[in-house]
Write a structure and sequence with these properties.
This protein starts with 14 loop residues before the first helix and ends with a helix. The protein is built from 9 helices and 10 strands. α1 (15-21) crosses α9 and α6 (152-162) packs across α8. By secondary structure, the protein is of the alpha+beta class. The radius of gyration is 17 Å and the shape is globular. The chain has one domain (15-263): Gcn5-related N-acetyltransferase (GNAT) (Aminopeptidase, 3-Layer(aba) Sandwich). The strands form 2 sheets. Strands 1, 2, 3, 4, 5, 6, 7 and 10 form an 8-stranded mixed sheet that branches. Strands 8-9 form a two-stranded antiparallel ribbon. Helices cover 39% and strands 22% of the residues. It has helices at residues 15-21, 38-49, 58-69, 122-126, 132-139, 152-162, 175-189, 215-227, 245-263, and strands at 27-32, 74-80, 86-99, 102-108, 112-114, 143-150, 166-167, 193-194, 199-200, 237-242. β2 and β3 form a beta hairpin. This is GNAT family N-acetyltransferase.
């Protein structure tokens, strides 16, 4: 069955545009998968359709979407505007790992979508932090990693938010970390996992991937393309980010900058 790429974080590349748009109010709602109702799932799915050109029939796509969003150990973060429409959402699924004597918790964000008026909004990037004590209590104290399957725009956005990302192809991650990320990508994507290129095949390319970019964004896109040169063929790249002091400083710094822009 053809699947789709669903971790497409889409950043606004126009600074003045971002400043005006992030003044809009957002209201956060967090739901565990077992408590998600049909209305919420449909609202999230319809918002996502505005940012993605499907390669499969809509109801088939919705069935895949609903199946993932209602799996155990999954949380749904939604953000609604003053009109009560979903303006952004993302999902977290939790995967405890014991790899070569290392205990870790992989937090995978399969779906991550932000509608244009809310791109760069600080509330979105900071929404998960108040939940971290609950997650640690449930899964125990382990090394924490965030994982996502990316196209260029989401790779750029996550790189800028977290400060550094790790890939299977690159040299930054340790061998056991690369194996852990590959195990997760293979487990979640089955036959769509390319064991040779270490990418996920048969994905739908998100809209807006061809937009012009600043010098800093261009550099990150070039880095992405060294790992995944054939992304336009519907291939997405698994990445992960360590949850450590350096990451926290980077995320807090990003949130503060976005808050500053919001007030301007």
């Amino acid at each position: 069955m053809t699947q789709i790429q669903d971790s497409a974080t889409q950043e606004s590349l126009q600074k003045t545009d971002t400043r005006s748009k992030t003044r809009k109010k957002l209201f956060t709602h967090v739901v565990e998968s077992k408590d998600a109702d049909e209305t919420l799932l449909r609202d999230m799915w319809r918002m996502r359709l505005k940012l993605l050109t499907l390669s499969i029939p809509e109801e088939e796509d919705y069935a895949i979407f609903k199946d993932y969003c209602t799996r155990p150990d999954t949380f749904l973060f939604t953000f609604r505007g003053e009109d009560n429409e979903v303006g952004a959402f993302f999902t977290f699924s939790f995967h405890p790992v014991n790899k070569d004597g290392h205990k870790a918790l992989m937090i995978h964000s399969k779906y991550y979508y932000v509608d244009r008026p809310y791109r760069g909004h600080p509330k979105i990037t900071s929404a998960a932090w108040p939940m971290m004590p609950k997650f640690l209590w449930r899964y125990g104290f382990r090394r924490i990693y965030f994982a996502a399957f990316t196209f260029p725009t989401s790779f750029v956005s996550l790189s800028r938010t977290f400060g550094r990302v790790y890939t299977i192809q690159g040299d930054l991650a340790k061998d056991w970390e690369k194996d852990m990320l590959e195990d997760l990508a293979s487990k979640l994507n089955g036959k769509n996992w390319d064991t040779k290129e270490k990418v996920i095949c048969n994905m739908s390319v998100p809209q807006g991937e061809e937009k012009a970019a600043s010098r800093g964004v261009t550099k990150l896109r070039e880095e992405y393309e060294t790992y995944n040169p054939n992304w336009q063929d519907g291939k997405s790249l698994p990445i992960m980010m360590r949850f450590d002091l350096a990451t926290m400083k980077s995320v807090i710094g990003t949130s503060l900058r976005r808050n500053k822009r919001k007030k301007q």
